[in-house]
Amino acid sequence: GAVVSQHPSRVICKSGTSVKIECRSLDFQATTMFWYRQFPKQSLMLMATSNEGSKATYEQGVEKDKFLINHASLTLSTLTVTSAHPEDSSFYICSARGGYKQGNTEAFFGQGTRLTVV
Amino acid sequence: AQSVAQPEDQVNVAEGNPLTVKCTYSVSGNPYLFWYVQYPNRGLQFLLKYITGDNLVKGSYGFEAEFNKSQTSFHLKKPSALVSDSALYFCAVRDATNAGKSTFGDGTTLTVKP
Fold first, then answer.
1. Nearest one of B51, B32, B37 to B107, comparing CA atoms
2. How confident is the model at residue A52, as a pLDDT?
């Protein structure tokens, strides 16, 4: 399958600072990228969907100004957690999917980022 | 609207025995169905998908799944479980006409005991 690289895999930051997480599709063009948050022993919570070159669509209850998503190119999307607080500590996962015309139906996932805010 | 149900939080099987992880779905149109596996502190790995064609789909690591339209199910199966199959499994569905997001089930933890 296609490869999606997410970086960093782990990050510890101080409360009030911002953290940027990168998601790259290495061998395909990702027209759509998704950002999820996963709590321990729970399913994926979709935060937002982004299409290259346009603004992200956020799910209900997700703060746009806190979780900034940029999808500047067909291979890169970033999630910036601004003014992080301890309650933002979580496992964040990105996924990427190619275009429908390319026959790409499934999404491929990054390795995840464990964010700890202290 | 689309939804997925994984009725079992936990499935336990003995190594060498067959395993089944259940999934039922609901979509308004034709479904695209997916299974993913997640190991601790890792992202999800794609296992297999049903788009169209044969109802029995074969995927990675010896897993297969059967699409049953009348029962709106897509159960994951493997003839002989391995201890290394122990992980968290997610079923997902997307309407074939929907270019947007997939909906994931709550996940089923599979434990294979030696």
1. B37
2. 80
